[in-house]
Amino acid sequence: MSTPKRNNETTPSAEPQPPSELTTIGLSLLGIFIAARCLAVVSRLATALAAPAMGFYLFTTCPTNESFDAKRELKRVLRGDKLPDDHPAKPKGFLEKAMAKVSASIEAEAFALAGIKVEIMDLGGIVKIATICHPVTKTSYFWLGAVHKWRYVLARDLPAQHSKLE
User: Fold this and answer.
1) What residues does each domain of the chain span?
2) Which residues have a Cβ under 8 Å from the Cβ of 73 and sit 6 or more positions away?
3) Which parts of this chain are annotated as the region Disordered (predicted)?
């Protein structure tokens, strides 16, 4: 029996040649592009589903106009409850806190007697903005009503032209 001769030049090799570097980079970029497109679609879908759900949640938990007690909220602001702990104007000790409470009560009652103007603006039933305007001190205080609570936002001095218009 004769064995056939093998010619190494004519038979294909057992190992395939590795892909070129350009091919590897191209396939990687294509995969990254496809993954990015999939993530974008999922992100848009999540936003499309979450936005109405969040809007419905805010709509159902929006506080009523009657739940805003202007005197009580104003007292909280005036006695320094809404200030951060490291603020220099925040009362620290027992005596300072007691004096701040008394002072806030007197100021809130004086504001009520002076004729403060309370306005509540409803933004589509999702959130509400309450404003207390004091004509004597020319200061406005703002609260945001959402998720069953009224949250103090800021106090702002009214410009001179605004007080002349009223």
Assistant:
1) 21-60, 65-165
2) 130, 132, 141, 143, 150, 152
3) 1-20
The label of the residue with tokens 């406005």 reads: 140
pLDDT in tens, 24-57: 899 999 999 999 999 999 999 888 888 899 999 9
Residues sharing a CB contact under 8 Å with residue 163, sequence separation 6 or more, in sequence order: 135, 138
pTM of this prediction? 0.66
Bridge partners for 141 per DSSP: 132, 155
Question: CA-CA distances (angstroms) from residue 39 to 31, 44, 114?
Answer: 12, 9, 58
CA geometry: angle 159, 124, 76, nearest 5 deg: 50
